[in-house]
Amino acid sequence: MDIIRCGWVTQEQIYIDYHDKEWGIAKYDDASLFELLMLEGMQAGLSWITILKKRDNYRRCFDNFDPQKIALYDDKKVNELLLNPGIVRHRLKIEAIIKNTQAYLRILKEFASFSDYIWQFVGGKPINNNWISIQQIPAQTMASDMMAKDLKKRGFKFVGSKICYAFMQASGMVNDHTTRCFCNKPSS
Question: Which residues have a catalytic role annotated?
Answer without folding.
Answer: 18, 40, 48
